[in-house]
Amino acid sequence: MKIGPHVVGAGEPPLVVAEMSGNHDGDLGRALAIVDAVAASGAHALKLQTYRPDTLTIDVDAPAFRISDGHELWGGQNLYRLYERAHTPYEWHRPIFERAREHGLTVFSSPFDATAVELLEELDAPAYKIASSELVDLPLIRLVAGTGKPLVISTGMATVAEIDAAVRAARAGGAAGVVLLACTASYPAPPADSNLRRVPVLADAFGVPVGLSDHTPGIGVAVASVAFGACLIEKHVTLDRADGGVDADFSLDPAELAALVVESERAYAALGGTAIGPTPAEREGLRFRRSLFVVEDVRAGDPVTAGNVRSIRPAGGLPPVEIDRVLGRTFSRDVARGTPLSWDLI
């Protein structure tokens, strides 16, 4: 399937998607600077999250509406206040979309209700992302699928049955295609919980391209996912983790994002095929395999000894395994040092 101009799926290098999320820290100028940095990194796409605090929750401070005290980043915080801090105002979307498109970036978003879908349709978003927590909101999935655009669905926390229901809802609703993202919905996520072996399992189970939404530190997990067939890699990005911010701890800085683009392309190129044997790039190396050479000037009738015939580089002489068959024979003619040994010389 396609997301904007990008083909996503088997046989294609992974699409690298930079998620801005709340790393703009409530500053439109910073948001636009993140767009510029994403473009400069070589990433293929920029993703936003389109919601207001009251489209995700309500302003209540009961215990159910607070994140557990032990959470590594947001312990004890009230949901409404956290989303108030992290959301991207609707009026910022157009300048962000325009800046991204000026750079040639594909830009899309995760909508969380009908008002978000309406806004993103006005901006002609080429695709939509369903966040992990919204995978169980089948009415939302059907609404988004009704745009006829492709859906990227994160599967953090989801069971196979829940993923199946979401994929069915997307297809029945008219989505142009579905990409599933393996995801560990913890922030930050421990690499040991990434379970990258599920990537091909999801692809086989649902017959769709599968990528990775990654919240682990660094780029190691994301690059490794390419070996398992990940066709899309989503990572949060910020200008500088030292600046802080709601998602900064598990976000890449621009240099790391650029490294992810390069290394994921290298990982994809490295997959190659299943052939065993010399590659075209090894042709020169074959010339410098070991073989038997005459290493001292000899005269006809001299015996072949370990002192005048050795296994050395380059190739061209008899194979090294023949050394026991040639030792003790005699040279049939004068031979100069540096001559590859052949049967006609002895």
User: Uncertain regions: pLDDT < 50 for 5+ in a row?
Assistant: none
Please give the share of residues in helix: 25-40%
Major sheet summary line:
8 strands, parallel
* CATH fold description of the largest domain: TIM Barrel
Question: Mind sketching the topology for me?
Answer:
Elements lengths: L1 E2 L2 E2 L7 E5 L8 H14 L3 E6 L2 H4 L22 H8 L3 H13 L3 E6 L2 H9 L5 E3 L7 H8 L5 E4 L5 H14 L4 E6 L14 H9 L3 E5 L5 H7 L5 E5 L17 H18 L11 H4 L4 E4 L14 E4 L10 H4 L12 E2 L6
Parallel strand pairs: 3-4, 3-10, 4-5, 6-7, 7-8, 8-9, 9-10
Antiparallel strand pairs: 1-2, 11-12, 11-13
Helix pairs in contact: 1-4, 1-10, 6-7, 9-10
InterPro entries: AFP_Neu5c_C_sf, Aldolase_TIM, PseI-like, PseI/NeuA/B-like_N, Pseudaminic_synth_PseI, SAF, SAF_AFP_Neu5Ac, SAF_PseI/NeuA/NeuB
Protein name: N-acetylneuraminate synthase
GO molecular function, one term: N-acylneuraminate-9-phosphate synthase activity
Short note summarizing the structure:
With 346 residues, the chain is an alpha/beta fold. The chain has 12 helices and 13 strands.
Structure write-up:
With 346 residues, this protein is of the alpha/beta class. It folds into two domains: 11-52 and 87-271, TIM Barrel, CATH 3.20.20; 280-345, Antifreeze-like/N-acetylneuraminic acid synthase C-terminal domain (Type Iii Antifreeze Protein Isoform Hplc 12). Helix content is 32%, strand content 16%. The chain contains twelve helices and 13 strands. It has helices at 28-41, 53-56, 79-86, 90-102, 114-122, 138-145, 160-173, 198-206, 220-226, 254-271, 283-286, 323-326; strands at 2-3, 6-7, 15-19, 45-50, 106-111, 128-130, 151-154, 178-183, 210-214, 232-236, 291-294, 309-312, 339-340. An eight-stranded parallel β-sheet has the order 5-4-3-10-9-8-7-6. β7, α7 and β8 (178-183) form a beta-alpha-beta unit. α6 (138-145) runs parallel beside α7 (160-173). It is elongated and about 100 Å long. The model has no long low-confidence stretch (mean pLDDT 96). One of its GO terms (molecular function) is N-acylneuraminate-9-phosphate synthase activity. Residues 291-346 form the AFP-like domain. One of its GO terms (biological process) is carbohydrate biosynthetic process. InterPro entries: AFP_Neu5c_C_sf, Aldolase_TIM, PseI-like, PseI/NeuA/B-like_N, Pseudaminic_synth_PseI, SAF, SAF_AFP_Neu5Ac, SAF_PseI/NeuA/NeuB. This is N-acetylneuraminate synthase.
